[in-house]
Amino acid sequence: MRVNEHIRYGPDEPCPLPLALGVAVQYVVLALPPTVLVVILTVRASGQDDAYLTWAVFAAFIINAVVTTIQAVRLWRLGCGLTVVTGPTIQFVAITAAAVSQGGPALLATLLVASSLFQFAVAAWLPLMRRIITPVVSGTVLMLVAVTIAPVVFERLADVPEGRSPASGPVVAAVTLAVSAALTLRASGMWRVWSALISIGAGCVVAVFFGIYDYQRVIDAPWFGIPDLRPPGIDLAFGLEFWTLLPTFIVLTLVLAIKGISDSVIIQSASQRRQRAIDFRQVQGAVGANSVGMLLAGIAGTPPTMAFSSFGAALTSLTGVAARRVGFAIAAVFVVLALLPKFTALLLTVPDPVMGAYLLLLLGLFFVGGLQAATQDGLDQGKVLVIGLSFAVGVGMQHLNVVEPVLGPSWGSLLGNPIVSGLVVAVLLTAFIEFSSRRGKRLEVALDDSALPAIDAFLVDVAAGMRWNESSSIRLRSAGEEAVASLMPVSEREGADRAPWLHVSARPGAGVVELEFVASVIGRENLQDRLAYLAEQPAVADPGEMSFRLLRHYASGVQHRQYYGIDVVSVRVEGSP
Prior knowledge:
Heat Shock Protein 90; five-stranded antiparallel sheet; two-stranded antiparallel ribbon
């Protein structure tokens, strides 16, 4: 089992409060500029006044704090129990402006509330979508997000005040990037923890010498302030404008949910000291928390939120701190910023070339994270095609929208979005591969000892259909028996109230059978982690481990996905000549 030696404090380990606060400030430094920028773009594009902008920024900070806290706490089925900083997403800027122009802020609020319900449904139905929303699809979306945002970030490197030397921006950005890269590669201890602020500070110092550091907004900002409450209310008329815009909001919400799935997978991997199987209950909780953020954004009349999990994973790898206490500290800092406009203005004085350079480094890590997610289960011809064609279409659409002349400006601008177009291609290809492959046999039984004869007869039939020899048939039957034994309720009480069920499917391939066991069991240890643990231990005569050791012997591969109320175990069994 791989060990990440860079993690100094795991999610459930209590790190010192000053350290947690220091890391939290670095998270907020990265999340604050896009938060304010997206709110400003959305409000200005919607034609709202400065008073509404002040309320929208205040509400966005509070929503960031609430959702980040939910992610860290893992409240019921909401949240992932990890440090996940939240902020508004730029994907909705154009469509939110259209909603406000057609029906006012109340129409936007109604659309966001409806979209949040759809995102809640995605979180609940994630087990049903597992064959379509795969790591390949979500990883490809992450790579496209990085490639799409990179040009916008790169433009900030040359964004300097009028009358200043055009060379000042690239020079300041180069210094920031050089310091950041050097600290990332060579720093250790506290230097590594504070690498983000040190590199940003170095860039600001150089910016002062070039005269591109503007501190006037800090002087003009008040010390303390709470804006007038201006929630837009909900429009329950459900007129033509609502039904016209709803499909676009739903598609963008699906993109947002898939990105949340990808981000959750990446932040889990980055936060673990000992690498474990992805806990999809945490993934469902992360998407559910994002849904709460969208619901609150609709009620408050601010842009919908997303999790900056990939930036968080990059910062976790830089600092080595993955403790949940950092999430609580991030929420506290956002509340302070909401109440102290002068401190917010201080952070907003960071010149664009400085912030752009550091974001460029994180985008590179973001892209690599997506690539790792897409290739985590290996590559075959189908996966290579999905990744390659989806990525090529997305990048191509970024430079030329070829569908808008065919579909018109409304649907054309939506499907011509690089992320949406790449997602559509990835989902369609994945669905085609899934539904055009050879259909396997299925069996539904109760999850108890009485089902074992039926399952054995089912597997005998599968082996006969494959024309496997006796040794291969015994291997298949034995692997199935041990997999079912690992899913059995550990006590009579566990299965008594829930009447657990088991769905077994077998998909034959070229000399191999893919078995899938879908069971309604709760609270079991992850089988994939247990097998990885056994691989590191000596073979001892422990009756409690015998079933796991036999499964590891008979199967060539085991994957265990745990969702709320459902466990999915995939077992790969190879035949012998």
